[in-house]
Amino acid sequence: MAIDQYTYVGKIGKTHALAGALNVYWEVEVLNTSFKVIYLKEKENYIPYFIDHLETLGDHSYIVFEDHKSKELAHPLVNKELYIKEKDFSKYFEEIDEDFEFIIGFHAYQDKEFIGNVLEIHHNSAHQLALIKHHEKEIYIPLVDEFIVSIDDEKEKIVFDLPIGLLDL
Fold first, then answer.
1. 63 partner at 20 to 30 Å CA-CA among 28, 142, 155, 169?
2. Could you write out the three-class secondary structure of the chain?
3. Top-level CATH class of 100-168?
4. pLDDT above 70: residue 107
5. Diameter of the chain by CA atoms?
């Protein structure tokens, strides 16, 4: 008998509302939300959780499991990692190819204001960071959709919409 292999696809965040909905943060691109089961790793076992409802909103979703339809029942699942059988991965997901190394040397702007050149790209478990020299100090800017307005390969330019105060850190 073949042993199933599992692929990590995301993580459960906090509970959402009272009906047992949980925030899910995907580490992969969701192509199709018709899957009815997802696996949580508990110790060394992959336990199936059957999905009652799944609503996807960009890089995260709200999920309700069949046997966890209250906030109290759902709460123990917070921060658990999500897996899918490896053989089913390509039906529902694809890897995210977000290697930002190509923007090293690009001119970075906050709206129309030049803030510096991208010196390096750093990787952490959540996302990639652009190291930019700004007014003689080095700052790290998370390379996330919420902050990136545009990337122009021809002009070697990246435009950000950053939260107030981020450049002052």
1. 142
2. CCCCCEEEEEEEEEEECCCCEEEEEECCEECCCCCCEEEEEECCEEEEEEEEEEEEECCEEEEEECCCCCHHHHHHHCCCEEEEEHHHHHHHEECCCCCHHHHCCCEEEECCEEEEEEEEEEECCCCEEEEEEECCEEEEEECCCCCEEEEECCCCEEEECCCCCHHHC
3. mainly beta
4. yes
5. 62
Q: What is the pLDDT of residues 23-66, one digit of tens each?
A: 998 878 788 889 999 999 988 899 999 999 998 876 678 999 99
Query: Looking at residue 125, what is its pLDDT?
Result: 55
Q: Going by CATH, does the domain composed of 6-94 fall within 2.40.30.60?
A: yes
Quickly tell me which residue has 């599992």 as its tokens: 6
Across 145-153, average pLDDT: 91
